[in-house]
Amino acid sequence: MLRVRAGRVGLCAGSVVLGHTQDQTGGCFLFDCSLLEKQPPNPGQDAAVDSSGSDRILAAAFSPNGGFFAVTDDSKRLVVFRTQPSWEKVSVRWVSRRCTALTFSASGKRVLVADKSGDVISFSVTEPNTAGRLELGHLSMLLDVVVSPDGRHIITGDRDEKIRVSRVDAPHVISSFCLGHEEFVSQLLPLPGNRKLLLSGSGDGSLRLWEYETGRQVQRLDLSRVRESVEVQGKTTYAVSKISCSGCGEHVAVLCDGLPGMYLFRVPGGTSLLHAQYIALSRAPWDLEFDESATLWLLTGVQEEPLIQYTLTEGLWQPVHVNDGLLAISNVVKENWKRAEDSVKAENRFDGLYKVVFDNMATYLRKKEDRLEKEKRKVTSKLVEPVSKVLKTN
Fold first, then answer.
1. How far, CA to CA in Å, does 261 sit from each of 237, 282, 286, 288, 371?
2. CA-CA distance, 231 to 221, in Å (whole number)?
């Protein structure tokens, strides 16, 4: 899991948090969440803590200015780090259910976590001893939560194909729904600009652009049709697993679960997506992220070269030479490679999220046919029995 913000890099490998400030020369900050206690410090705490968690980090995010970094793990902990002037742990709190996504408010003063029950809970960053506050709830598992750039809306995507846009100041007030996806909504990304556009990705293999305040769909892109379809293990449609946008809003990068490559798009005028490039890779990458200079960071999933940076050169995205900062982070990833690889293998993020179609009519017709066949056999046996008796008497 890779996050880049305001000259800082946060990378999660299994239960380990790797923190790095790009302009520092003193190496990386390393924190192992598995060393934290698994029980709340206060016996009367409400959180239902399960000590059976694996400590694997499930979600992570930077605050808007990069001053804080938060992670949630499989042991239902929310850990907040301060990144300025150097990385340090600020607080550890417990959530009642395992989280699927998290983000910060526009001000950076609260962390919003989405969980498997469909709730969004917010926690104060500056008051680490305060309990969480319920903001909103869905009837289905939440898979992503974001806050609009102007800080006025909380946008959530769930397993039942719904995107809900709620007001921050009154989360129970729903501004709109963005409806149209045919499978679970896996990724949400508000685009910078005045048009208030939202980019979403789904298990149906599509990218969709919305005017989120009205719920109107602006554009739909089926990734399997953007370029020649790639078949891996019998699949040609892949769930969108990551969307990242450059700070200027001109470039978008997309990963799909299990697909060995990444899509690059242009956003001319901030109004629509145009396919710019597809980069084929040796294996499906784990994550990607743009930094403030529009450099694209790719977490490759290859131990020999775990991190690659790409820049736009003469109209094409090209890998750049390894620099000292990238080399320092890469070396720490290599040292924790086994833990990171096991975490990715165990994730199975989208398993079980797809809809299962039941053909009730076919089942009904088959049962009806069996029933008629049984009735036919009964009638035949009743007709045959008198004939056999007559033959015996004669």
1. 13, 8, 10, 11, 52
2. 18
Indicate the pTM of the whole model. 0.83
Phi, psi dihedrals of residue 70, rounded to the nearest 5°? -125, 145
Q: What is the mean pLDDT of each run of 10 residues along the chain (394 residues)?
A: 87 85 69 80 48 78 93 92 90 90 94 93 90 91 94 94 94 93 95 89 94 95 76 70 91 92 90 91 92 91 91 92 84 83 70 74 80 83 62 57
Q: Count CB atoms within 10 A of the CB of residue 35.
A: 8
Burial class (CB in 10 A: 0-12, 13-18, 19+), 259: buried
Residue 365: its pLDDT value, please?
79
- Helix %, strand %, coil % for the chain, to 5? 15, 40, 40
Q: How far does Cα 107 stand from its chain's mean position?
A: 23
Q: Residues near 281 by Cβ (< 8 Å), separated by ≥ 6?
A: 260, 261, 262, 300
SS3 of residue 253 by DSSP = strand
Q: DSSP letter for 235, please.
A: B
Buried b (16+ CB within 10 A) or exposed e, 58-96: bbbbbbbebbbbbbbbbbbbbbbbbbeeebeeebebbbb
Instruction: List the beta strands (DSSP E) in 26-126.
Output: 29-32, 57-62, 68-73, 77-82, 88-94, 99-104, 110-115, 119-124
- Beta pairing partners, 62: 69
- Give the per-residue pLDDT at 393: 60
> What's residue 49's pLDDT?
46
